Amino acid sequence: MKISFLIRAVSAIALAILAGLAGCATGNMTGWSVPRRSLEDQVDLLREHVEIRLPDNQDTAVPAVIMLHGCGGLRDVQEAYAADLLDAGYAVLLVDSNRAREIDRFGAMTQVCTALRLWGQERAADIPAAIALARESSAIDADRLALIGWSHGGWTVLEALDYAAEGRSAPALLPTPADPASTPLSGVRAAIALYPYCGFPVRADGRGFPRTIPLHIILAERDLVAPPGDCVRLFDRSEASGVAVDHEIWPGQTHAFDEPNGPPDPRIQYDADAADRARARILVWLEEAFP
């Protein structure tokens, strides 16, 4: 009888967990569990969690790069890219999407990285908010902006592009009166994603990326976290729809190959040479975007 009771108890707990997971997925997919804010409120949410850095010896407004971290939050990898971008004369906006929502490192690894919280569809609202913050700075040329996203941040970039191509804002943003002089990604001249997540529950299907924003992708051949095949299929659909996506699959590389302080995960291996090449590759793309 005790064994039977334990089996029933464990089964009930398992069903409750599954129901909770299903509820999270349903809420995120339908949007009913996603907090909705005006753009002004979204800006206020992020304001204390977006660090703006400017290059030295700046005498005119400069292009800026909005940086979107992976699911674990801001890490050393963003610092390395930011240093090279500043040396090249770009401003950088480091967006801490997790801290803005009071998600610490533990919460990030157990909730965001497991897709229980903060899907890319919701986080896409951070991009127009970061653009608005860039426009507040006279030191930034807000008509020359670029997006860079790593992993979950790359997923976020793909979703933002997809919504922009549809002419609407991310679902976490309340509708605003149409402004013919502005779009959700106004001023963005290039979008870059490194090893983005492209599988379920990504909404973007590749058939609706904007034609006016070049999209560059670096994928990792040995990526077991965000398998490159999912992205390749998505980009094939985009090309079939008339929008080519510039993507490269780097042989031998794993997920987060450019993160020098990654988690203790055998699926992730740091490669300093590849990290240097990735930063150099991005500088070339930015030079093309900001002639």
TrEMBL record:
Molecular function GO terms recorded: carboxylic ester hydrolase activity
InterPro entries found in the cross-reference section: AB_hydrolase_fold (IPR029058), Dienelactn_hydro (IPR002925), FrsA_esterase (IPR050261)
Tree of life domain: Bacteria
Pfam hit, one: DLH
Coiled-coil stretches noted in the UniProt entry, renumbered to this chain: none
Domain Dienelactone hydrolase: 55-160, 187-289
SUPFAM superfamilies assigned: alpha/beta-Hydrolases
Keywords, in A-Z order: Hydrolase
PANTHER family found in the cross-reference section: DIENELACTONE HYDROLASE DOMAIN-CONTAINING PROTEIN-RELATED, POLYKETIDE TRANSFERASE AF380
Listed name of the protein: Dienelactone hydrolase
Organism: Maricaulis maris (strain MCS10)
